[in-house]
Automatic annotation (TrEMBL):
Matching PANTHER family: MITOCHONDRIAL DICARBOXYLATE CARRIER-RELATED (PTHR45618)
GO MF term set: alpha-ketoglutarate transmembrane transporter activity; antiporter activity
GO terms of biological process kind: lipid transport
Assembly: Interacts with SMIM26.
One of the Pfam families matching this protein, by short name: Mito_carr
A GO CC term assigned to this protein in UniProt: membrane
Protein name: Mitochondrial 2-oxoglutarate/malate carrier protein
Renumbered ranges of Solcar repeats: 67-158, 167-256
Reaction catalysis annotation: malonate(in) + 2-oxoglutarate(out) = malonate(out) + 2-oxoglutarate(in); maleate(in) + 2-oxoglutarate(out) = maleate(out) + 2-oxoglutarate(in); (S)-malate(in) + 2-oxoglutarate(out) = (S)-malate(out) + 2-oxoglutarate(in); oxaloacetate(in) + 2-oxoglutarate(out) = oxaloacetate(out) + 2-oxoglutarate(in)
Species whose genome carries this gene: Monodelphis domestica
Length: 264
């Protein structure tokens, strides 16, 4: 029953080690998705953080008084909407490449990398398709950044005013963890809308969903109201560390920039 294995002195045929096709697919599929993820971060994240930092500094009082929470939220909304518009093409490519492996073989798009995805989408479906779902993406970004950026700034200000914290990495860590919790609760419903619209297909010549509201109505009707927050814990487990690293690096880079270029 078992195949004969070759021995050093025997005359059997040597069996070459085999690599699982699934492992190859996982590795190269992951790399393809990684390219889209990196491009998304390079467009969306840098744009939103840059705009928020500039507007926050310009709206800070001459005596160092920070903007009010409402103004912080408004700055976050502006930064998020702009960043989302810039990053939507990479977002569309990322959503499609991530979902590709879950589709039947005859329905897979087979993008090689993010640039191949962007070129093929523009060529086969038209340039406007790169901004498909732009409105719900911007709506999500408005909610996320109003929650994330404003709650981080407000939490940091509260911790510093308490007298138990100084402006250091530990303070940034605590403020960003609070921000991650607020952002998770606020963003999950709009994240579901954005993802489903960007990944929807045509059914009998008609789009699967009419708009973002139609997505919410169908999800609540067929899956239940609290399904809008399904997977809250793993979502926060992903978003929490991401938020921590984002703000810690941002704070350190801002300090380095001020020290190198503004100290004189």
């Amino acid at each position: 029953m078992a195949a004969a294995a070759a021995s050093p002195g025997g005359g059997g045929v040597a069996l070459k080690p085999r690599t699982s096709p699934k492992s190859v697919k996982f590795l190269f599929g992951g790399l393809a998705g990684l390219s889209a993820g990196l491009l998304r971060q390079a467009t969306y994240t840098t744009t939103r953080l840059g705009i928020y930092t500039v507007l926050f500094e310009r709206l800070t009082g001459a005596d160092g008084t920070p903007p009010s929470f409402l103004l912080k939220a408004l700055i976050g909304m502006t930064a998020g909407a702009t960043g989302a518009f810039v990053g939507t093409p990479a977002e569309v490519a990322l959503i499609r490449m991530t979902a590709d492996g879950r589709m039947p073989p005859d329905q897979r798009r087979g993008y090689k990398n993010v640039f191949d995805a962007l070129l093929r989408i523009a060529r086969e479906e038209g340039i406007p398709t790169l901004w498909r779902g732009c409105i719900p993406t911007m709506a999500r970004a408005v909610v996320v950044n109003a929650a994330q950026l404003a709650s981080y700034s407000q939490s940091k200000q509260f911790l510093l005013d308490s007298g138990h914290f100084s402006d250091n990495i530990f303070c940034h860590f605590c403020a960003s963890m609070i921000s991650g919790l607020v952002t998770t609760a606020a963003s999950m419903p709009v994240d579901i809308v954005k993802t489903r619209i960007q990944n929807m297909r045509m059914i009998d010549g008609k789009p699967e969903y009419k708009n973002g509201l139609d997505v919410l109505v169908k999800v609540v009707r067929y899956e239940g109201f609290f399904s809008l927050w399904k997977g809250f814990t793993p979502y926060y487990a992903r978003l929490g560390p991401h938020t921590v690293l984002t703000f810690i690096f941002l704070e350190q880079m801002n300090k380095a920039y001020k020290k190198l270029f503004l100290s004189g």
